[in-house]
Each structure stands twice: as C-alpha cells, then as structure tokens.
Design goal:
Blueprint lengths: L5 H10 L23 H8 L3 H9 L7 H11 L3 H15 L14 H9 L5 E4 L5 E4 L1 H6 L13 H7 L3 H4 L3 H18 L4 H13 L1 H9 L9 E6 L3 E11 L5 E6 L4 H12 L4
Antiparallel strand pairs: 1-2, 1-5, 3-4, 4-5
Amino acid sequence: MDGHGGLGEFLRSRRARIAPKQVGLPGGTGRRQTPGLRREELAALAGVSVDYYTRLEQGRDTNPSPAILEALAGALGLDRDERAHLRDIARHTAAPAPAEERHPVRARPGLVQLLETVRPTPAYVLSPTSDLLAANAEGLRLLTGIEDWPPGRRNLVRYVFTHPAARRVFASWQRMAEDCVAHLRTVEAADPGSPALAAMVADLSAGSADFALLWRRYDVRVKSGARRVFDHPAAGRFELTSEILTAADGQRFVAFQPGTDAGARAAVARLALSPRS
C-alpha cells in the first residue's frame, strides 16, 4: 500500500470533506482547485509540518506515531470507527503483513447449528467479505433470487449491487448499499492483502456504477445491528432488526429478528411457509 491507496487515500478523502468554515478558517477568495481543506490547512490544524503531512499522503513516510495519528484524527473530525480504521491502515502501511496461503472458507460448525436453532428467524453465516457461507431456509427466502446463483457466487454485497431483486427487497436500498461498502473498507484495513476483497472490489467496480461511486467516497463503518425494511414478494412489507455476532476468525453470524412487532412476526411466519425462490 502506498500513497495512491491505504493511508494516503484515506487522508485525502477525509480532507476533501471538510470546508474551511467548518474549522473556523476563512474561505478565501477565488475558486479552490480541490474540494475541502488544503494540505497546509490540515497540517496546521493537526500541529504537523506541511512537508511531513505531504509525505504521509504521498506514502513517503509510512510510520506515523500514535500521537500524530491522534492529532490527525482530531483535525479531521473522525468518529470512533474512522479512528480505528486510521490506526489499522497506518499499522499495515508501516509493516505489511506477509502473504498467506489461502484456503477455501467453510462456515464454523457451531454457527451452522445456530442457524437452525434460531428458525424461523432469517439468519446467515458470512465471511469478512460477506460471502454467504451458510444460511437457514428463511434466510435464503428473504434474499429473493439469491438461490438462482451457484453457492460460490452468493455474496451479500454482490446481491445488493447486482441482483435485480435487491432494490425491492431492501426498501431502504441506499442505506444498505452504503453500509455494505463502508464495511468492506474496514475489511480492507484489517486485511489489505486479501485477494478475495481485491477481486470483489474490481468486479463490482466494473459492473456497478453505484458501487464504484461509494467505494471512491470511502465511508468507513463497522457493521452492527440495524433496522431494515423489507418489501418481499411473498411475505409483504415489514421491518426486522439485525443482530451481528463476530467470531475470532472474522466470520459473522447475522440474524434478522422481528422483535415484538406482531406484523413483523407474522411476516417471518409467512416467509417460513413461502416456496423457495
């Protein structure tokens, strides 16, 4: 990772989002060549030299201290997830992880058993890059049409951006799409050499203008529980709340729960009885 990606890319993306007036600086006269703060303005806010900050963005300095990272995070107004991301990419930039032999990933047996335990709640076991490693019957039916794809292609992010049914199934599709891409950015920081992630990003960037735009926007957000509205052809319109449990190896157990809402519970019951897509 160099200044054209990783740390440099993240710093540039966040600097471009800050208008001078947001940090008490005058807008100046004339049109700025780039959006957001200039390098010298951000360097001053963070208390570092312009030359040093420029080297960070260009990848010519790859080992900023924790104090420097904290100063940059403060100057950029980063939230908790973004600060963690900054630390992760800085660590991997300074000491790239050696290449590891990759093996096919299988769902953890305990998580597969849990899929059946929570039925009829729709549930999944996902890899860090959201490959669908396993799902219960209701989970497959919730994602209308995903069973049309061979098991090796089933991936939640790919489904959201490329399956024609996804924009209806996820009534709040834009928010779901943003969350998926923001999660992949956290995966990139934790495992920058991941060939699975690189292949997915290349594939989706070429096949989906929406994905390519969101990837360039560089939002960072750790996936956590969220309320999602679904519009399902067999079960109707209803809202479920996701609960996410992450294992030590990065596999995630995701369940969409109806809670105490009678309408949502009835919808899940209809989902359980509906024929497979």
